[in-house]
Design goal:
With 220 residues, the protein is of the alpha/beta class. It has a single domain, classed as Alpha/Beta hydrolase fold, catalytic domain (Rossmann fold), CATH 3.40.50. It is built from 6 helices and 8 strands, in the order βββαβααβαββαβα. The chain starts with a strand and ends with a helix.
């Protein structure tokens, strides 16, 4: 591929039509599907910062809104859809299948970058599509929400948690004991749940780029 591809994609997942932004750098070695957490979107500055680091590392990205606009409004009131991991994982599986079939990304190994509850959904999707999803990174994620599916994940998994995000850190330590795939926990000292401290998110981006570069290139 000789030039950068940047375009909006639309994905049908059951009754919902989801919207995402696809960026494929020239010569991309893999593609990373983003599964954001509650109250976030494909326009999130945090996701965009990480995506930029992946582009510089020669990786493509698909930043996808896992909820429709109407569902986001509903979730702001009820907070129920963000924890519907089965539904979110089903949408990630559909997005993974799209990337496998999409001409701009066909043949590229696929990874998933999940934040908050999106990380649980990404791990369930990895268990559902072991032949397609080759690596997972969780940022301040809830891998515990994947439940029994954790033991079925075959993709190498990196868990990144802020050192001051104690509840989530404990949940990640416990989840690590249930992962049978190659897995590592990285703790960013002094960081809270959203990694808003100076330099914290940049550390996450660096770790994610290194993890995906290693494991997607190996899969490719």
């Amino acid at each position: 591929m000789s030039e950068v591809v940047e375009r909006e994609v639309r994905l049908r997942a059951g009754p919902a039509e989801l919207v995402g932004d696809l960026v494929v750098p020239a010569g991309a070695a893999g593609v990373v599907l983003f599964a954001h957490g509650s109250g976030s979107s494909r326009h999130s500055p945090r996701n965009r910062l990480v995506a930029g680091a992946l582009h510089r590392a020669g990786l493509a990205t698909l930043l996808l809104d896992l909820l429709t606009a109407a569902e986001e409004e509903r979730d702001r009131v009820t907070a129920e859809l963000r924890f519907d991991v089965a539904m979110l994982a089903g949408r990630l599986v559909a997005a993974t299948d799209l990337l496998v079939a999409e001409p701009a990304t066909a043949g590229l190994p696929v990874g998933a970058f999940g934040a908050s509850t999106g990380a649980g959904a990404a791990l369930v999707a990895a268990a559902e599509r072991p032949e397609a999803l080759a690596a997972v990174v969780s940022r301040g994620g809830r891998p515990d929400l994947a439940g029994d599916r954790l033991g079925q994940v075959r993709a190498p998994t990196l868990l990144v948690v802020g050192g001051r995000d104690q509840v989530v850190l404990d949940l990640n330590r416990e989840a690590l004991t249930h992962l049978t795939a190659p897995a590592r926990l990285e703790v960013i000292d002094g960081a809270t749940h959203l990694f808003e401290e100076p330099g914290a998110l940049e550390q996450v981006a660096h770790l994610a780029a290194a993890w995906f570069t290693e494991h997607l290139r190996a899969a490719g």
